[in-house]
Amino acid sequence: MDQLKRQEAFGEAHGKLILVGEHVVVYNKPAIAIPIPLKIRACIRDNPGEISVSSSIYSGKLTDMPEPLTGISDCIKGTFERCNKALEGIHIDVTSELPQGRGLGSSAASATAVVRAIYKYFQKDLTKEELYSLVGLAETYAHGKPSGIDMVAVAGDDAILFQKPEKVSMLPAAKPFHMVVADTGLAGDTKKAVEHVKKLIEQSPHTIELIMDQIEDIVMGAKKAILEGDSELLGSLLLKNHEKLKQLEVSDPLLDHLVEAVISSGALGAKLTGAGMGGCMIALTKDRSKAELISEKLIKEGAKVAWYYSTDSNRID
Ligand code: PMV
User: Fold this and answer.
1) Closest CA to 55 of 72, 35, 67, 75
2) Over 70: is that where the pLDDT of 237 sits?
3) Is the shortest distance between the CB of 194 and ligand 1 below 6 Å?
4) Is it the case that residue 1 has pLDDT exceeding 50?
């Protein structure tokens, strides 16, 4: 340790929702993501000896982290290396409001919070490029072939239109949108879902390319709907995107059931969000009171949790 004074440092990041374009974004097509105010916080304090970590999913030494946490472990090691520090002398405590493995960006947000906290602890300035390259270590392990949309979305405060390799533009909404985010309670597997789409492309390239082009049109339509504040148009595009994700075979029976249930209850649109095969879905509603009814319906139909979120507020409940 080269610090004599005991100290603490904090880093934070939030979750994200992919509104439209997941999966095709891996293949250089655009997608739209918005931040959601469910936070992950990392707190670092002096702790002599080996680096240790505590969180809801793992507590123990960095060197003993289980295989599924290799990504975040690589990210911590990479961050120490970038800061030119020996791997010792701290404890990292991670607390999260984000459910894990539900397509809400928890892996990118934990890595972002941890990298920010380590840089603060060593009193180093962190550029966006450094942050993305370090969080990319965790994301590559979690996703296999990440597009990068998660790490940009969890680190910023705006809705974004994202396209690989590095086209990011802000999407200021003309009017707030009212949304319900529902968790199926079933963990998704991003790596598996991304690999499944890759396999489909290898098997039927023309069919899948056509679906991907159709999703690209949906994304461009959604961009217009957001910029013009047209929630009815946005809702119909969400539903179209869900149908295309079903054709890519990344939905599942519960996600489909929840989408159908909210549409028949008057939601403007709905779809799975994130990689799918479990995870979360979103529904767009006309206003808050409709969102409350839709939340109740979702819980009745099998969702484990439903949050209300409006894009003009910093709260989710
Ligand atoms: O981490 P998830 O479940 O939100 O998935 C990210 C979205 C994908 O497009 C499926 C993968 C990617 O890297 O963009």
Assistant:
1) 72
2) yes
3) yes
4) no
